[in-house]
Design goal:
The complex is a heterodimer of chains A (604) and B (123). In chain A, helix 6 crosses helix 13 and helix 17 packs antiparallel against helix 18 (466-483). With 604 residues, chain A is an alpha/beta fold. Chain A has five domains: 13-113, Glutaredoxin; 138-347, Rossmann fold; 358-441, Ubiquitin-like (UB roll) (Roll), CATH 3.10.20; 446-533, de novo design (two linked rop proteins), CATH 1.20.1440; 548-603, Alpha-Beta Plaits, CATH 3.30.70. Helices cover 39% and strands 15% of the residues of chain A. Chain B is an alpha+beta fold and 123 residues long. Chain B has helices at residues 4-18, 36-41, 43-56, 96-108, 118-121; strands at residues 28-33, 62-67, 79-82, 89-91. Chain B has a four-stranded mixed sheet, covered by helices on one side. In chain B, helix 3 packs across helix 4. The chains are: A alpha/beta (604), B alpha+beta (123). The interface between A and B is large, with 43 and 42 residues.
Chain lengths: 604, 123
C-alpha cells in the first residue's frame, strides 16, 4: 500500500523543558543543547521535539522536564540525567522511575499531573498555557485558541458588549487593590473620542513575588491579545507594557511575541480585516518600586522621574500625556481572553461571592514546594500551605504567612482557615496584594519581619511627600530600637500613632500601605513586641542584640572545640572543665552552637 | 491576519502537532514495544507509521505511546491496543503497512484485525 508522504513535522514524543527564571537559575538552559546532542547520538532527533516552555510552578524541584505522551514528570534533572532519559525513555520506552517526581508515581504507574498533590487543588486560567506551549512560537499559542477571543471581539462584537462581558464576569484587578476592571474600562470608554492609551503594569516589585514574570515568560501573547481587546473596548490604538528591566527573559520573550504578532497582522493596522488598529511597545523600568503605583508608572513612561501625583484626575480621565488611559496588571489581562472565549457565566462559577475567578500566588519562604500556584478564590490558606505547598520543612510549625508584600499584612496560625479572597483578607488586616505569599515558621521573629518590609519601603519611598519620606524612616528607627533591646512600651504606642498618620496622609499607595506589616504584626503578635521591650528577649531567637549564647555546664565536656572555632576568641576555659562565653565580646555568629559535639550551647 | 478562518487554519495545523502535551484519560492507547528486541525487529518505522496515520486522520483521544520489552521477543514488533472497557488486543510481527491497516480497521472502524493478533499470527 502506497502512503502519501507527510510533509508536516510530526514528533512522537515531546520533551518540555522549563525555561522560566526559576528553572533557568537551577540550570535548565544547559539541558536543551544536551538533549540535542543525546538525541542526535541515539539517531532519533527527528522523532522527538524538544520545547522550551514557561514555568510549571514547582520551582523548588527545578529543573523540571516533562515528557509526553506519557506525561512523565522528571524533577531536579541534572545534565548527566539527560543521556539516561534519552536512551531509556525516548529510545527504549522505559520511563526512568528514579528521576520522576516522587509524588507523581502511583505504584507502577504514573499519575496524571492533575492528580499530583501540588496540582490537585489548582485551577489554571491565567497560567493555562504556561508550561504547555513554547512562548516563542505564536503558532503554539494560536493552537490553544490564542487570538480567537480578539478575532471574535473585532468581528462579532461592539466595544460596549466587550465591557459588558467583563462587567458581568465581575473581574477585579489582580495587581492588589481589587478594583473592578470593567469600571476602569468604562470610564475610559466614556471619555470623548480621541487619543487614548492602554497600558500594562508589569512592574512587579514586591519582594518574593514572581507571578507576572511567569505569565510573561510562559505566555506573553495572552497579555498582548488582552491589551488589544481592551484597546478595542475603550477606543484606543496604542499601548505600552511597562516592565522591569530586571526581568530579562520576560523582556526578550515579549519582544519576540510582539514581533511575531506584528508579522501575523495581529498588531498593527486593520487587524482581522477591520478598521481596528493597535500598536504596542515596551517601556523598561529602572527598578523603582514606586513605579508600580499607577500615576508614577505613567509619569515614568512619559520619560520623567517616576513619582506619583494626586488623584483625581484618575488615569482613565487624564493619564499618559494627559490622555484617557487604562492601566491593568499582567494577571488581570491574562484572564481576559479566557472570559471572552468561555463567557462571563463560566467565570462567575469560579471563586467566592465577591471575588470571582482564580488568583496566582508566588509561594515562598519556609515552605517545601516553593513555586507558582493558581487557585480558585476562596481556597483557604491551610490548603495552600499544607496541601499544595507540601507543608513546612524540617517539621517546624507554621507561624504566619505574609500576603501582599510590603503593603500587606500577616495571617497568623489561628486564621489559617480564612478563605483567600479580597474581602476576607482586608477584614483580617492583610490584603490580597499582587500575590506574593511568604510563609514563616516558628523561627521567624515578627518584629524582624516588620522591620524587613519597612526597611524596603524606606529604601523605595520616592521622597515626594513628607509622611512617607520621613514617617516611614522614623518608624524604622523605632523598630531598630526595639530589636536592639533599647525599646520601651512608649515606643510601641508611638509606633502605632505614627503608623496611623503615615497611612492617612501619604500621597500614594506606597506610603498609605507601608505601615501595614507593622500594624498587622502588632495586631496578632503584640506579645512578641512586648517580649522585646519588657523582657529584652526575642522569642524566636532572631534579633542578635537580644540573643545570648549560653554553655550548659552540665552538658559541656570541656573539649574546647567551641573556643577553637570562635572567630573573636570570646570563649575561654580549661580543658575538661566547662567553658564560658564572654557576652561582651560575643558577636552572636552562632558558630559555637553549630560546632559543639555535645549540643551544650544554646540560644537564649 | 485578515479573518478568523485564517487563524483557524493555523490553529488546526499546529494543534495536531502539539496536542499530545495534555493529560488525557479514557481514550484509546496504542503502545509499541520499543526495547532492544523491538527496535531490532523494526519497531521504529512501525511507531512512525502509526503516529502519521493517527495524525493524518485527525483522530482525537488516541495516545500513541511506547513501552519496554513485552516478553515475547521472537514476535516483535509488538503493538498493543487498549480501548477503555475492552480487553487488550496484541498485534505481533507488525510492519508499517500492517500498522496503517490496523489504525484504519481497529481504531477507526472498531474491527480488530484478527489475523495479525497474537493468537492467530503465531499459528
Amino acid at each position: 500500500m502506497e502512503r502519501e508522504v507527510i510533509t508536516m513535522k510530526l514528533a512522537r514524543s515531546h520533551v518540555l523543558v522549563c525555561g522560566g527564571t526559576g528553572c533557568t537559575s537551577s540550570g535548565s538552559e544547559k539541558l536543551l543543547p544536551e538533549f540535542d546532542i543525546q538525541l542526535e547520538k541515539a539517531g532519533i532527533k527527528n522523532e522527538v521535539s524538544v520545547v522550551k516552555t514557561g514555568c510549571f510552578g514547582l520551582c523548588a524541584l527545578g529543573p523540571i522536564v516533562i515528557v509526553y505522551p506519557e506525561g512523565a514528570f522528571y524533577s531536579m534533572v541534572k545534565i548527566e540525567d539527560v543521556k539516561t532519559i534519552v536512551t531509556e525513555h525516548l529510545l527504549k520506552g522505559r520511563i526512568v522511575k528514579e528521576l520522576l517526581y516522587d509524588d507523581s508515581i502511583d505504584g507502577a504507574a504514573i499519575k496524571p499531573l492533575k492528580d499530583v498533590d501540588f496540582y490537585k487543588k489548582q485551577l489554571r486560567i491565567a497560567l493555562k498555557n504556561c508550561g504547555v506551549i513554547d512562548p516563542e512560537e505564536i503558532d503554539e499559542y494560536i493552537a490553544f485558541d490564542g487570538y480567537k477571543a480578539l478575532g471574535r471581539v473585532l468581528t462579532e462584537m461592539e466595544p460596549k458588549q466587550v465591557i459588558d462581558i467583563i462587567k458581568q464576569s465581575k473581574l477585579r484587578g489582580r495587581g492588589g487593590a481589587g478594583f473592578p476592571t470593567a469600571i476602569k474600562w468604562e470610564f475610559a470608554a466614556n471619555q470623548p473620542e480621541g487619543k487614548k492609551y492602554v497600558c500594562c503594569n508589569a512592574d512587579e516589585g514586591d519582594p518574593g513575588a514572581f507571578m507576572d514574570r511567569s505569565v510573561l515568560e510562559g505566555d506573553p501573547h495572552s497579555v498582548i491579545e488582552a491589551m488589544a481587546i481592551a484597546a478595542y473596548a475603550i477606543g484606543s490604538d496604542e499601548g505600552y507594557i511597562y516592565i522591569r528591566a530586571e526581568y530579562p527573559i520576560a523582556v526578550r520573550r515579549l519582544n519576540i511575541a510582539i514581533e511575531q504578532a506584528k508579522k501575523y497582522g495581529l498588531l498593527g493596522k486593520n487587524i482581522f480585516g477591520t478598521d481596528f488598529s493597535f500598536d504596542l511597545s515596551l517601556r523598561l523600568g529602572a527598578g523603582a518600586f514606586v513605579c508600580g503605583e499607577e500615576t508614577a508608572l505613567i509619569t515614568s513612561i512619559e520619560g520623567k522621574r517616576g513619582e506619583p501625583r494626586p488623584r483625581p484626575p484618575f488615569p482613565a480621565v487624564e493619564g499618559l500625556w494627559g490622555k484617557p488611559t487604562i492601566l491593568n496588571n499582567v494577571e488581570t489581562y491574562a484572564n481576559i481572553p479566557q472570559i471572552i472565549l468561555n463567557g462571563a457565566e463560566w467565570f462567575l462559577g469560579i471563586g467566592t461571592e465577591k471575588s470571582k475567578g482564580t488568583k496566582v500566588f508566588a509561594l515562598g519562604g519556609k515552605i517545601n514546594n516553593t513555586g507558582l500556584v493558581e487557585v480558585p478564590m476562596g481556597t483557604t490558606l491551610r490548603e495552600i500551605v499544607e496541601e499544595i505547598g507540601g507543608g513546612i520543612p524540617n517539621g517546624k510549625k507554621f507561624k504566619a504567612a505574609q500576603t501582599g508584600g510590603p503593603s500587606g499584612g500577616c495571617i497568623p496560625t489561628e486564621l489559617i482557615d480564612t478563605p483567600i479572597d479580597y474581602d476576607s483578607l482586608i477584614e483580617i488586616g492583610a490584603m490580597m496584594g499582587s500575590g506574593g505569599l511568604i510563609v514563616m515558621d516558628e523561627d521567624s521573629c515578627m518584629v524582624d519581619i516588620a522591620k524587613f518590609f519597612l526597611k524596603f519601603t524606606v529604601d523605595e519611598s520616592c521622597g515626594k511627600c513628607v509622611p512617607c519620606r520621613i514617617g516611614t524612616k522614623r518608624m524604622l528607627e523605632i523598630l531598630e530600637k526595639i530589636t536592639s533591646g533599647k525599646g520601651t512600651v512608649e515606643d510601641i504606642e508611638n509606633l502605632k500613632k505614627l503608623a496611623g498618620s503615615v497611612k492617612s496622609s501619604s500621597l500614594c499607595g506606597l506610603g498609605q500601605t507601608a505601615p501595614n506589616p507593622v500594624l498587622s504584626t502588632l495586631k496578632y503578635f503584640e506579645d512578641e513586641y512586648m517580649a522585646h521591650v519588657i523582657e529584652k528577649r526575642c522569642p524566636a531567637g532572631v534579633c542578635k542584640d537580644l540573643l545570648r549564647y549560653i554553655i550548659d555546664k552540665e552538658k559541656c565536656k570541656g573539649c574546647g572545640i567551641c573556643a577553637k572555632h570562635c572567630p573573636v576568641t570570646a570563649i575561654s576555659g580549661e580543658l575538661k572543665k566547662p567553658y564560658e562565653i564572654d557576652q561582651q565580646m560575643c558577636i552572636k555568629c552562632g558558630v559555637c552552637e553549630i560546632k559543639c559535639p555535645f549540643k551544650a550551647i544554646s540560644r537564649k | 491576519m485578515k479573518s478568523l478562518a485564517e487563524l483557524e487554519a493555523i490553529r488546526d495545523k499546529t494543534l495536531s502537532e502539539i496536542n499530545m502535551r495534555t493529560d488525557r484519560q479514557g481514550g484509546i492507547r496504542i503502545v509499541v514495544g520499543m526495547a532492544t528486541c523491538g527496535i531490532a525487529a523494526g519497531a521504529r518505522p512501525v511507531l512512525g507509521a502509526i503516529i502519521e496515520e493517527v495524525s493524518k486522520r485527525e483522530l482525537k483521544d488516541v495516545i500513541v505511546s511506547q513501552t519496554g520489552c513485552i516478553g515475547v521477543c521472537r514476535l516483535e514488533p509488538i503493538v498493543e491496543v487498549y480501548r477503555p472497557g475492552e480487553e487488550k488486543v496484541t498485534y505481533v510481527m507488525m510492519t508499517p503497512q500492517k500498522a496503517v491497516e490496523m489504525v484504519t480497521e481497529h481504531i477507526v472502524n472498531n474491527k480488530p484485525i484478527k489475523k495479525y493478533t497474537i493468537g492467530e499470527a503465531d499459528k
